[in-house]
Write a structure and sequence with these properties.
Ribosomal Protein S5, domain 2, five-stranded mixed sheet
Length: 145
């Protein structure tokens, strides 16, 4: 006859609430209002007409990116990110797109339609270098001070 197997201890039951949902947690409505107030809301620039309209706008070119923009009276910043196959393969292009979107999200931009075109040199640039060049190019174009 074999001895009985030792019983396993069951772990204590955890709360079904997500972490940080206690009384001192920030409510989602507050976070969304704060995000909107800080200007972090970006929308995508969509349609061929929207991109064609930007040909009439202000432009500037840096080492890693070039920008075109027009003022927009109707709400949030609309951004079109253009990263061609000259920059690299899909993984590299998506990485640059994510970095540029995050940089623009943190900048306080006035309402405008903005197109950012990445140059092939952006493939080897780090986040800080891309940030500096994008900020320089936006200042050069007159969008930010």
């Amino acid at each position: 006859m074999t001895p009985p197997k030792p019983r396993r201890r069951t772990p204590p039951l955890r709360s079904l609430e997500p972490p940080g949902s206690g009384a001192d947690a920030v409510q989602p409505e507050m976070v969304n209002k704060a995000a909107r107030a800080s200007g972090s809301r970006l929308e995508s620039l969509k349609g061929e007409w929207a991109f064609a309209r930007l040909k009439k706008g202000r432009a500037a070119r840096g080492r890693l990116v070039s920008v075109r923009w027009l003022p927009n009276r109707t709400g949030p910043v609309k951004v079109g990110l253009v990263v061609s196959k000259k920059v690299g393969k899909a993984v590299v292009r998506n990485k640059i797109r994510r970095r540029m979107r995050e940089i623009l999200r943190h900048m306080l931009l006035p309402p405008c339609d903005l197109m950012v075109v990445a140059q092939p040199e952006a493939a080897t640039a780090g986040y800080a270098e891309l940030y500096r060049d994008l900020a320089f190019t936006l200042k050069k174009s007159g969008l930010i001070q």
